């Protein structure tokens, strides 16, 4: 399933593909007239809407191809790099970029296109961009908190904000694009044609009408089809997930989890999928208690990509179900606590006076093999044991922290 990781084909192939994409992108911009500053600045005066038309054509076509590919199972949406939302810096950056485009007639990408066509104003704009990048790098420490934390929402999209399927957002965007096309042509006529009789609305050509209807039908069909549910995603990834669980590649020993919890350079997120009664009786410090139905919530989606997520139940049965859900969503760095809380308490809970341990007959079974006289949650030593005061365990390290590579492009890249 796409996307394909080009790095697996070697540096040469990756470099060649990137160069070809860059050449194609640059040539498309030049053919569309984006190498001419008058065309870009003209959109702000409503006299030349070429940029708006080309950009929205590209957006709606890409949008339909992208989400139809996801809906049909050809593309895994969760593996696509999407920039995390930092609302404050985005608003400020948008204002500065807009001012730069009005004054200079280019954005960073189109200025490079203009430079390669030997336009001196494009070259001067590129030099200005380079100076701006240098100044930002040298001064970013003074506003680091604003840059990293102001209006931070993590991976946040329109469908997340509205709480609807992506197909409905696509329908809304296409309707907006069609209205903008009509408005763009209207303003071009009344501002460029001095004669009043030329300002009358013109008939829409059959080709444009057919194109608009085709886009709307495709969008409505996408909304009806819907995006993949967790169950459908799990079915697509079932073979790969089953193999990892069967080979014990993702079950980590309590000793490894404790080591990670004590490592200040590693962020560990413990996801406890037991019933609230068992969770309140005992749980690891700073763990989340989530049901299986809550695993596709914003809590999971907004976790740091480099964080190690460890799912746990009393044994492994329910934890395996949780792992399947998260792995099918392509949540990175997910592991299972080997033997669950039963195994953890047998490893680190023997000093607890109020704890009664029972023999573990089946490590995978979620039958509770412990009991406490009082429900203390994480208010006991076993919830956050001191590694210097507990027996050392021998185990094979399995955690390999992987970070998805996000790809940015266009003016935002």
Descriptive overview:
The chain has 16 helices and nine strands. With 413 residues, the protein is α/β, with parallel strands linked by helices. It has two domains: 223 residues, no CATH class; 153 residues, Rhodanese-like domain (Oxidized Rhodanese, domain 1, 3-Layer(aba) Sandwich), CATH 3.40.250. The strands form three sheets. The chain has a five-stranded parallel beta sheet. A two-stranded antiparallel sheet has the order 1-2. The protein has a two-stranded antiparallel sheet with strand order 8-9. About 1% of the residues have low confidence.
In short:
With 413 residues, this protein is of the alpha/beta class. The chain has helices spanning 11-31, 37-42, 50-71, 87-104, 108-116, 120-139, 144-149, 158-162, 166-192, 206-225, 230-246, 254-262, 276-281, 298-301, 317-328, 340-348; strands at 85-86, 152-154, 251-252, 268-272, 288-289, 308-312, 334-337, 355-357, 370-372.
Poorly predicted ranges: 405-410
Distance between the amino and carboxyl termini: 25 Å
- Give helix % range: 40-55%
Largest sheet: 5 strands, parallel
Structural class: alpha/beta
- Large-scale geometry: elongated
Topology pattern, helix = H, strand = E = HHHEHHHHEHHHHEHEHEHEHEHEE
Q: Strand content of the residues, in percent? A: 5-15%
Instruction: Give the domain tally.
Output: 2
Name the quaternary structure: single chain
Mean pLDDT, all residues:
86
How big is the Rg? 28 Å
Strand order of the largest sheet: 3-7-6-4-5
> How many strands appear in the DSSP assignment?
9
Total helices: the number is 16
